[in-house]
Predict the structure.
Amino acid sequence: MKLILLIFICCSFMITSCKQEDNLKYKDKTVTIEDRINDLVGRMTLKEKIFQLNQYIFGVNTNANNIGETINEIPPEIGSLIYFSSDPETRNQLQKKAMEETRLGIPILFGFDVIHGFRTIYPISLAQACSWNPELVKNACAVAAKESKLSGVDWTFSPMIDVARDARWGRVAEGYGEDQYTNAVFGVASVMGYQGESLSDTFSIAACLKHYVGYGQSEGGRDYRYTEVSPQSLWETFLPPYEACVKAGAATLMSAFNDISGVPATANHYTLTEILKERWKHDGFVVSDWDAVDQLINQGVAGDRKEAGYKAFMAGVEMDMKDNIYMENIPQLVNEKKIPIEKIDDAVARILRIKFRLGLFDKPYTTIVEETNRYLQPASRAIAKQLAVESIVLLKNEKQILPLETALKSIALIGPMANDKSNLMGAWSYNGKEQDVESILEGLIKEYKNEVSINFSKGCDFDGIDEAGFQEAIKAAQKSEIIIVCLGEKKNWSGENASRSSIALPPIQEKLVTELHKTGKPLILVLSNGRPLELVRLEPLADAIVEIWQPGTEGGSAVAGILSGKFNPSGKLAITFPLTTGQIPIYYNMRPSARTGTQGNYQDISTEPLYWFGHGMSYSDFEYDSVRISSEKITREQKLIAEVTVSNSGKMTGKETVLWFISDPVCSISRPVKELKYFDKKEIQAGSKTTFRFEIDPMRDLSYVDATGNRILESGGFYIHVNGQKLKFELVD
Ligand code: GLC
């Protein structure tokens, strides 16, 4: 009898708790996300709500330039963690506490800087833009998302889409170059790669657009500093990539460190609320950058942490990264009625919305797979290699010295980058491992096996004054038919907190080239760097210059394949290479000068850069015929078709990118000398030709945006520019 009674009691208890469970609408996956959000927010205490507005750190922050031990005590109610670990088991243990040891069981959102790959490291973003292959970038981001998800990361602080034109600023490495259209296209490709068809897909992670907004204008290239951004430049140059990516569904944004002409981005109601939420209707959330809320004090707009927290939150920053200001101060600010509870609820709802969309309430745990099946899969490596190959830019190739002669018997491979692995991965390659990377030397040995003797000699370090290695390097050069010098930057010379007053390489590297050039042997310069470099003294000494950027895990084999001719280079610069640091800022879409001819040019050096945005050579011989347009006059409602046919008269099949620009010589405001509006990359077989086509939509491609964000289309004359040709047409009312 007692047993029956006991069973009855247990069953009724289970039914009751299930009943309660059933009543918890927010746990019911058959209910709409908005209804689940409303139900949950309605159940939360203020304290529970404020936990959601905070992000703590789990692990050690080893960002190359900001090393620091930052492990917080992890309260299971915390909204988010920056997860400095790649162990899914640890993540699941933390998540289990959140799901089972808290009153409401709200999952933690695990974020991390997956900038150009998780463990399979892809070329840095600036290099990726030089591939002009958004589909390939999307595929790379999808792999990065899968490796992240399998490691316990649901959210990446990427893509960085800050238009940047000052190569003294180390973070030019992290974005997609100097042009807003390029940043928009590759930003969208990254968002699509990370987020997939749906955020709830098994291997989707949430994207985070950063750093919102104008960070790339850091004055003098000095990180964290003042940015002068006029309303006109804000709308014309810096906002377009964000607008495109928000419209593509980017889940989150990160507010930047910089101030925008005096109003810090992290306390800027105009950009964070009026534009992002009210105008663009973004329904995700904004996380501050690391300590950026606290830094409002340094920036002089807050007298203390409480005021900093108040200003950031009221401006539209929903989540506070790392400095704990929201945790400490929002309860009091709500009690003092300075922050209305409705605004708290809206912020919490935005964060919960992304967690629900990611499926974290229903699938809070990472599926554990064998580490060997988590990373560096053959398909992932293949994408890494293809992207490295297509990102490489052939800057110079005198007398077609490249690809290397097949009859070659000996190569001198010299320089600090020649057998380096770690620096090939570039900044923000936290989970990348040197052991996975193939050096240029290893790539060449594999490429040439023992048909060609490769005489390696490092020659010198990246910097310093020690020339002791020069003699051995010169000997290696003297006994070889050709010299390949591999120079460049260490990975922490670019990225965050990596401003440099000069973009020249250290003198020791330049001197090595000068000494090697004296041997009179053909000399090929291979550069691995995270920013445009000052090459004014090196360029004349090199017969060929190959910009490999920081190509990642598959860099060595990609470079070897380009040098040998197995691969045909197809990269084109997404950022201008100044002749010298003194020319900065210099970028292709500047506004026209008030004076023509040479007036206003530098007296001491050329005013032309060494290589313009869009420069890049191929082993093929691409010839453009005359650009054609479907009409010389169009109305606003009509489209204009522009076409150009490109022939490949060379011996090698190759890929060519056609960049289409528009200019408006007479307008209510002074428009840039030309603006990229479309691009297309196609393979053209040797001896054949292909037609490239650009369908111009007047409102999209001919209009400009004014200082209030209104798009304005004025009739009149326009030019279309392609490969040095320009053709006039008219927009008539
Ligand atoms: C850093 C960077 C930002 C990064 C964040 C988290 O300071 O500015 O790009 O995503 O902190 O590491």
Q: What stands out?
A: Residues 63, 82, 113, 157, 210, 289-290, 496 surround alpha-D-glucopyranose (CB under 6 Å). The domain at 377-578 is CATH 3.40.50.1700 (Rossmann fold).
